[in-house]
Specification:
elongated, little secondary structure, single chain
Length: about 70
C-alpha cells in the first residue's frame, strides 16, 4: 500500500467547520507494481489512516484504478 496524500482542509475556518470540501488525490509519480495470483486475481484496497482523536467523516465520490500489464 502507498500513501497518496493527506486530507487536511486548507480552507477550514470557524465559519466552515462541519462543511465538506471536495478534494482530489492521485498517485501520479507514485506508481507501483503488484503481482496477481495464479488465477489472475488482484485485490485493490482504499482506505484512510488518521491520528486525529475525534470524529472524521470521509466520502469517496469516485475511485479510478488503471492497470497496465508489464
Amino acid at each position: 500500500m502507498i500513501n497518496i496524500g493527506d486530507m487536511a482542509n486548507p480552507n477550514l475556518t470557524p465559519e466552515t467547520a462541519g462543511s465538506y470540501e471536495l478534494m482530489e488525490q492521485n498517485s501520479v509519480g507514485r506508481e507501483f507494481e503488484a503481482t496477481a495470483d495464479e488465477d489472475g486475481t488482484l485485490w485493490f484496497i482504499a482506505g484512510t489512516d488518521s491520528g486525529f482523536e475525534g470524529l472524521t467523516t470521509v466520502y469517496y465520490d469516485t475511485i479510478t484504478v488503471v492497470l497496465e500489464e508489464k
